[in-house]
Structures are given as C-alpha cells and as structure tokens.
Amino acid sequence: MDGEVSMRATRQQLGETGEDLAAAALKKQGYKILERNYRTPLGEIDLIARHQGYLVFLEVKTRRSVRFGAPAEAVSPAKQARLKRLADYYVKVKRLGEVKVRFDVVGIFISEGQPLIEVIKGAF
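The structure assignment produced for this chain is given below.
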C-alpha cells in the first residue's frame, strides 16, 4: 500500500487506512500488535499492543488536513476516560491481573505524497 487515499474516501476508509499505516509503523518500532478494532460492550479500541513491558492501548487519529487541529488533539478528556474504561474491561476479560498499562496516540496526516505518522507514547 502506498499510503495514498482518494480525497473522496469515506471517513471509515480513511480510518481503516490510518490504522493499517499505524500498525505497520508501530511494528517497525518494536510494538507487537495483539488486537485490532477490539470491540467491547463499552466501545471499540483501535489497537492493543505490547511494547517495552507495557500493555499499550492505542487510539489512531487520521486526518487529511490540519483544519480541525492535529490528530492527537481529537482525543478529548472524555475520550481518554472512555479508553481507560475500555482498557480496564480488556484486562479483566483477558484475566491479565496486574499489568503495566500505557495509552499512546498515533496521529496520521494523509495528503499528497507520503503520510506523516506521529506516535505519542504515554499520551495520557
């Protein structure tokens, strides 16, 4: 995949492309992807991975422009609280016990040419 997305792509297609790009970039940085689009009764987690001794819950935000701000800025305090509840649910359902947890955000800009991918470790 060359990372380019038609400007007419739907939000869902843009999100899926962003998650594909994020997963590939994270793997190159040593993340082991455990789950993609993990659905719970409380909502969905984009990516779950292991990295440097942490169980990492990742929110992927993909944008075509900065008109609405940087991708990472879209992870509001309410969204952060929801992701923490989803992480708690995952740890309980998987019976992982005491585990070090981290929340990372992957911001992706897709426009002309190569996508720009930023991984913010321990974003919140």
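Interim note for the steering committee: The domain at 11-120 is CATH 3.40.1350.10 (Trna Endonuclease; Chain: A, domain 1). Confidence is low (pLDDT under 50) at residues 1-7.
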